[in-house]
Design brief:
By secondary structure, this protein is an alpha+beta fold. It has 2 helices and 7 strands, in the order ββββαβββα. It is globular. The protein starts with a strand and ends with a helix.
Length: about 130
């Protein structure tokens, strides 16, 4: 099975995180953390900065690694490095997604997350409870 290496930004503002809704593909209307594929020779952090600029017309600061999620979809294996981030410049303008919202960290399960992103939510919840 082919492995796709991606990165995801958990963009935090106070006690909320930014979630985006897919507007295309097999998982149209499902929710995810923004990000995308890591290109050849790119670090995960650089990929995340590039992807957020392309998808949301904003500059972010990658602050801290959260988790790596491994998930098998029907057609590929996803390996996703997830990082806590914050907006440096821009207003998170949707260029590719259908919708977006800020979700309270203590109530992230109010949307229908993509299967791999559910594991990210679990990591956020674990970290929040720990400290």
């Amino acid at each position: 099975m082919k492995t796709i290496k991606v990165v995801a930004a958990i963009i935090r503002k106070e006690n909320s995180v930014f979630a985006t809704q897919r507007g295309y593909g097999d998982y149209k209307d499902w929710w995810e953390f923004p990000g995308g594929k890591v290109e050849e020779g790119e670090t995960p952090e650089r990929a995340l900065i590039r992807e957020i600029r392309e998808e949301l017309d904003s500059d972010i600061i990658v602050e801290k690694f959260l988790t790596t999620v491994e998930h098998d979809y029907s057609k590929f294996h996803l390996s996703m490095d997830c990082y806590w981030c914050r907006v440096q410049n821009g207003s998170l303008t949707l260029l590719e997604h259908e919708a977006a919202k800020w979700l309270p960290i203590n109530d992230l399960r109010q949307v229908n997350w993509l299967p791999a992103d559910v594991k990210v939510v679990e990591a956020i919840e674990s970290e929040s409870q720990a400290g």
